[in-house]
Amino acid sequence: MTAAPENNTHNAISSERPLHFLEQQIEKDLAANKHQKIVTRFPPEPNGYLHIGHAKSICLNFGLAETFGGECNFRFDDTNPAKEDQEYIDAIIRDVQWLGFKWAGDIRYASGYFQQLYDWAIYLIEQGMAYVCHLSADETREYRGTLTEPGKNSPYRDRSVAENLAEFEKMRSGEYDEGTCILRAKIDMASPNINLRDPGLYRIRKQSHHQTGDTWCIYPSYDFAHGQEDAIEGVTHSICTLEFADHRPLYEWFIENLPVPSSPRQYEFGRLNLNYTVTSKRKLKQLVDENYVDGWDDPRMPTLAGLRRRGVRAQALRKFCEMIGVTKSDGVVEIGMLEHAIRDDLDKNAARAMCVLNPIKLTLTNYPEGESELMIAAGHPNRDDLAERELAFSRDLFIDAADFREAANKKYKRLVIGKRVRLRNAYIIEADECLKDAEDNVIEVKARIIEGTLGNDPADGIKAKGVIHWVDAKENTPCEVHMYDRLFTDEAPDAGGKDFVECINPNSLSILRGCVAEKGLVNSEVGQTYQFEREGYFCRDANDDKDTIIFNQTISLRDNFNG
Ligand code: ATP
Ligand code: MG
Question: Which residues contact 100 (CB under 8 A, 6 or more apart)?
């Protein structure tokens, strides 16, 4: 990438914006000496790739730690081996590194605390605060009650401590089948908060775990694991999305009732929702598994891997996360805002290049055959640090089919017979005639150079109508260009019980073959994004097929959408 040396102000409190509620909270806690140093954490479950929503959580957690001189831990919440995979762990680490954040110490795993969590489960049993329950899943649901009706006590609720210890040991040693019993906390079946109606702490899963192998056949629930992991790590501010607000009383119940080494507090913020996008790993996995897209890193995916492959720079995502802010309520962000951040970043940082997407021949009849010259073009209009380019120029060039018409009205600022345009970074030319194929498509334009117009206006005072891009017919880089449109045609693809796959845009990918880019792009690096002048931003793909160079369209130059 053409990274500019830039000031990293994304999380500097010096910016003019007011502090958001979490920054205010932390400032207050530090002022009151509640903590010497804050500790946050980013706790993904390795059951899929990270998406744009996770970027918000990453920027928030790591950003707060940087801002307040604290630390942010990176912890895999790997309590459900059935859905998790080493591939996801590797991908998630790559993405967090790419975003440019540094975690404190080693990467941590919930599974690293399984023994401690198990010991605390025993502790709760010994305190008479947990029991093994053999109700079936259906019965458990029935006993739980509803939002308006209290639940009923399980018939297993009043077992003795000794019996519960023995039953839990049978769970642990594999004597019971999956689904036959669970360990539950003994709290209050009549609580208005359903999360406190004797929630499950441990369930049986006869599954190998990617980190612990076959050591365990019982696994802790999210609720029983999360707060305790925070406490073990000395996390001070455990920040999660709003849907966990109802779990907070349970989070606090465990912290109060277990001999944990510290007292973390949970805070909730509004998750990022983007229109025209789904941000749920489960749904993104469905797109991959059912081959609607070409893998988790398909450039149409809102995953960090997909955005990266599309040519989006990490700086643009960090900027976007700063722009959307942090609030206590959920909302939907316009995808146009993300696109704005991407475009703005690339405008400032992407090197310029020329690429003709739909080539037709341009023959300059007054340019000597067999001769050529080198044109010098800027790497970027305001960035001297981006190298100048050398462009071969000769009698035979390519221009885009869309940049020529036999006749046109005044609004058409491109090449027309009898009229002039400037070839970008080169001469002004005037078109004389065109040749067509049997289907009446223009296949070649014949034109003349106006002498003395390299860097100058024509001596005869007849101006060019516009500027078009071109590529030399011999000295060029043949390539394939993948053009992308939004993956969903519906603004809210998964709202209100809709089946999101039915909103998939059938034209989200179009492949242009036979494109030609300027010669220098033969040496472009994978992952490097360019502005193809007059066309948009494009990123060199990491395709393994060495014979074809592929560029993925990152984004158009201007917004095509009104919104
Ligand atoms: P998904 O529903 O996509 O699986 P998740 O919340 O289950 O998301 P986790 O791996 O558990 O995924 O998430 C790790 C962290 O990222 C959590 O703290 C979670 O709150 C946060 N997060 C997930 N999605 C979003 C989002 N859309 N906006 C902000 N934060 C998010
Ligand atoms: Mg989850």
Answer: 314, 318
For ligand 1, pick from 241, 268, 332, 335 the residue to mutate: most ligand atoms within 8 Å of CB: 241
Strands 265-269 and 130-133: unpaired
Q: Do residues 218 and 81 make contact, with C-beta atoms less than 8 angstroms apart?
A: no
* Site to substitute for ligand 1 among 22, 49, 51, 54, most atoms within 8 A of C-beta: 54
Sheet strand arrangement including 471-472: 467-468, 420-423, 428-436, 442-449, 359-364, 396-400, 471-472
Q: Is the pTM of this model over 0.85?
A: yes
Rounded distance between C-alpha atoms, residue 3 and residue 228, angstroms = 40
Please name which of 365, 274, 362 lies closest in space to residue 321, comparing C-alpha atoms: 274
Number of residues that make up the chain: 563
Distance 45 CA to ligand 2 centre (A): 6
Query: What is the distance between the alpha carbons of residues 209 and 217, in angstroms, rounded to a whole number?
Result: 9
Residue pLDDT, tens place only, 218-255: 999 999 999 999 999 999 999 999 999 999 999 999 99
Question: Which two tokens mark 350?
Answer: 């992407």
Q: What is the DSSP letter of 194?
A: G
Token pair belonging to 9: 């102000």
Residue type for 102, please? K
Please state, as a whole number, how many other Cβ atoms lie within 10 Å of the Cβ of residue 137. 9
pLDDT range class, residue 14, cuts 50, 70, 90: low
CB atoms within 10 A of CB 15: 10
Burial class (CB within 10 angstroms; exposed 0-12, middle 13-18, buried 19+) of 36: exposed
* φ/ψ (deg, to 5) at 380: -165, 140
Specify which residues 551 forms β-bridges with.
481, 540
Atom of ligand 1 nearest to the CA of 239: 18
> What would the pLDDT profile of 82-100 be if each residue is shown by its tens digit?
999 999 999 999 999 999 9
